[in-house]
Amino acid sequence: MKDDIHGYIAEINKVEVKTKDDLELFRIRFLGKKGIIPALFAGMKEIEPAQRKDTGLLLNALKNRVQEKIDEAKTILDKTGDKGVEKPDLTMPVGFRETGSLHPLTIVRNEIVRIFERLGFSIAEGPEIEDDWYNFTALNFVPEHPARDMQDTFFIGRDPDIMLRTHTSSVQIRFMEKTKPPIRVILPGRVFRNEAISARAHCIFHQIEGLYVDEDVSFADLKQTLYFFATELFGPETRIRFRPSYFPFTEPSAEMDISCFICGGKGCRVCKNSGWVEILGCGMVDPNVLDNCNIDSSKYTGFAFGLGIERTAMLKYQINDIRLFFENDIRFLKQFAGEY
Ligand code: PHE
To answer: Domain-by-domain residue ranges, the chain?
Structure first.
């Protein structure tokens, strides 16, 4: 690395920065996000400890030299103006370029995934086309369960065994078939339900599933994990509450509400004056589901949860129509530019 740095210093001494464009190129080449200086700093961790101090000093000298060169060139360009012109014409329209930005669903998905990554969860995905075993049977849906009804599920062709997955819970099964405990995984994906499209519901939406299986996993672990998640995503004041619910694949099952982050629980339009908003479904993995995946349910327990990304994004950004996510209207998407 030292040789490289000496090379760059020699280059800086030789190179001529004559115009503002030259200056900008020079600045980007050395100091830009993907420039030489950040790359060299990133490389410092590969340097042997004995060499680190000397290399660091040299690297700082290079950085100072770059800054000096920029300052020199600026002083001269400020006096002469670019390309010999005394002063730039300030009435000229600026070169305007639109840049793309992440879709709000991607932003929220990434944010949620990052929170769980910090707790040691890994991330995995599964197929959107599923068979009855993964989408229903292995998840403990009895044959006559109403969710299997044609009303909800898009079957493919006439085969009642092949369908578009109705939830990401199918990926729990795929993951547990392949991986044995301890399991800590987040499973994001697109899901499909045969529902009438309205401001509140769409036939395509996204979920994030979470699964944690190990020895001695309890409901307290579920609560603490989801409490951490809620405070990270919606702020440290956030409170959570659980309401009993039912899912075939968890027992006991619950729905989790968060205290309304708009009004703090006093009551407003977002929480429909209740002070609480529903955010996800969760529960302890039903022992039948573990057994279906050849995981010994007398030894292991687990919890699972699933949340809708659209719903979460709608709450977070106060978007009142789910259809906006899929219309790709630039005026809508633009509002999220600059979020990460
Ligand atoms: N799969 C459920 C749904 O689609 C959510 C859920 C996931 C509930 C995991 C409990 C555990 O709504």
So the answer is: 2-80, 104-336
pLDDT in tens, 158-206: 888 999 999 999 999 999 999 999 999 999 999 999 999 999 899 999 9
* Tokens coding 242: 């659980």
The answer to whether the CB of 203 falls within 8 A of the CB of 195 is yes
| CA 159 vs CA 132, 138, 144, 222, 291: distances in Å | 10, 18, 17, 37, 27
**Superfamily of domain covering 104-336:** Bira Bifunctional Protein; Domain 2 (3.30.930.10)
Handedness of CA 264, 269, 272, 277 (dihedral sign): negative
Can you state the angle between helices 36-43 and 20-31, rounded to 10 degrees?
10
For residue 84, what pLDDT is reported?
53
d(CA 296, ligand 1 centre) in Å? 22
Determine the atom of ligand 1 nearest the C-alpha atom of 167: 4
Residue 184 CA to chain centroid, in angstroms?
Answer: 17
